[in-house]
Design brief:
The chain is α/β, with parallel strands linked by helices. The chain has twelve helices and twelve strands. The strands form three sheets. The protein has a seven-stranded mixed beta sheet, with helices on both faces. The longest helix has 22 residues. The chain is globular. About 50% of the residues are buried. The chain binds pyridoxal-5'-phosphate. Pyridoxal-5'-phosphate binds next to α3.
Length: about 375
């Protein structure tokens, strides 16, 4: 099987599995217990916390572990609105955000919060002038992702954070697809990340929080994570996330160079009928969202069962809805339904990628012949 769905999830790095093993097989202490074993587990979690903080690379804040990035985003948005001062009852976000942001905003909208959802251009990028116009003293939070999960485009997060701060608002950046792949710019007050997108285990994410920007807790209970996020932490998951983050920091240049080689090889292998959706310049090059006239992407996926790739967003797949991101670019339903997403990275070889793309070309040709 050729795995080309790195935006949905990534293979667990061997180093991560080894780091986690003792915490699954032998060491089972509660990290919040004062016993010697408990303190050992707590110390391992603190090492992991530093490793994730270093991979994020921002100063002046701290990290709280969560069960997923979805939880981190829910917490950041709901908790910030809850704590916002009087008169600040508005969120500004973008139409191409992940469902974790958009659905949380919609939920709050049903409870009286005003949500402004900005459009993007045909390149998938938000216009900074639109952000400037939308953000004023009534805004509590501006939520803009760094790397888009469906099309890989990189939003101007530093500029957005500056505008948010000028209006006295906080800025949340969903950096799930960015961590370990592109540098996270200075500016955001809240940054959501996820372990399984960086070769770590599933079931753990984190929220980086600038000092003073702590959202009200979403989960109440034992007071773990400085009273901000209750629940017993899993040392195995934290250690795995930490090991993955450490590897991502150490291999940043190497992984980046590898992805650039893969991108060039992939573009070279694609037939001329394919069009790339979204900016190719302001983009993480491990994401190739392409479309071809008269291709039925769902059929392409079922024709090529030994190549794992995605239609639209992995999170929305199965819903039957055409991707909200592709529609925001101005693509028709038909164009969205003829779009596939190829995601590749650290463990993808150039040969397997090129071979898979040749087979995708052939399967698309066959569809075209059949339709003619
Ligand atoms: N944000 C983005 C951009 C994502 O791609 C994803 C997962 O696909 C999430 C948030 C949610 O992350 P998690 O799977 O940790 O809940």
């Amino acid at each position: 099987m050729t795995y080309l769905d790195y935006q949905a999830t990534t293979p667990v790095a061997p180093e991560v599995a080894s780091a986690m093993r003792p915490w699954i097989e032998e060491k089972f202490a509660n990290p919040h217990s004062p016993s010697r074993e408990g303190r050992e587990a707590a110390a391992a979690i603190e090492v992991a916390r530093k490793q994730v903080e270093q991979a994020i690379g921002l100063k002046g804040g701290s990290l709280a572990f969560t069960g997923s990035a979805t939880e981190a985003i829910n917490w950041a948005i709901k908790g910030t609105l809850e704590k916002a001062g009087p008169g600040r009852n508005r969120i500004v976000t973008v139409q191409t955000e992940h469902a974790a942001v958009l659905d949380t905003c919609e939920w709050l909208e049903g409870r009286g919060v005003e949500v402004t959802c900005l459009p993007v251009g045909s390149d998938g990028l938000v216009n900074i002038a639109d952000v400037k116009e939308a953000v004023d003293e009534s805004v509590a939070l501006v939520a803009v992702m760094l790397v888009n999960n469906e099309i890989g485009v990189i939003q101007p997060v530093a500029g957005v954070a500056k505008l948010a701060h000028e209006a006295g608002a906080l800025m949340l950046c969903d950096a799930v697809q960015a961590l370990g792949r592109v540098e996270i710019p200075q500016g955001p007050d809240l940054v959501a990340v996820s372990s399984h997108k960086i070769h770590g285990p599933k079931g753990i994410g984190a929220l980086w929080i600038r000092k003073g920007a702590e959202p009200a807790p979403l989960i109440h209970g034992g007071g773990q994570e400085q009273g901000l996020r209750s629940g017993t932490l899993s040392p195995a998951l934290c250690v795995g996330f930490g090991a993955a983050a450490k590897l991502a920091s150490e291999r940043f240049e190497q992984d980046h160079a590898h992805v650039e080689r893969l991108w060039t090889a992939a573009l070279g292998a694609l037939d001329s009928g394919w069009i790339v959706s979204g900016s190719t310049a302001q983009r993480y090059h491990g994401n190739l969202n392409i479309r071809r006239q008269s291709v039925d992407a769902a059929r392409l996926i079922s024709d090529l069962r030994d190549i794992s790739f995605s239609l639209g967003s992995a999170c929305a797949s199965g819903s039957g809805r055409p991707s909200h991101v592709l529609r925001a670019l101005g693509l028709s339903d038909r164009e969205a339904r003829s779009s596939i997403r190829l995601g590749f990275g650290r463990y993808t070889s150039e040969d397997e990628l090129v071979a898979a793309i040749r087979r995708i070309n052939e399967a698309a040709d066959a569809q075209e012949r059949f339709a003619a």
